[in-house]
Design goal:
77 residues, alpha+beta, 2 helices, 2 strands, 26% helix, elongated
Length: 77
């Protein structure tokens, strides 16, 4: 955000997660950025986020957008 355009102001963004099946933090960060842009808050750019987990498997070394079970499994680091 361009904070010099909003002197003596506080901008709070709250996210309420009702149900999560993995990658909730990435979705919340992206949603907060889109909410700020939709509100007309001046920003340098829109923030996006993704979740990636490393696995020990040679055929699939990365798990893109892992679900909750994958995030908690011992095979992901």
């Amino acid at each position: 955000m361009l904070l010099d355009r909003y002197p003596k102001s506080v901008i709070d963004v709250s996210v309420l997660v009702l149900q999560a099946s993995g990658s909730a933090l990435a979705a919340a960060i992206t949603a907060a950025s889109v909410a700020l842009a939709a509100a007309g808050i001046a920003m340098r750019d829109v923030v996006t986020c993704a979740t990636v987990a490393a696995t020990p498997f040679a055929d699939a070394p990365l798990a893109l957008d892992p679900d909750d079970a994958d995030e908690r499994a011992d095979r992901c680091t």
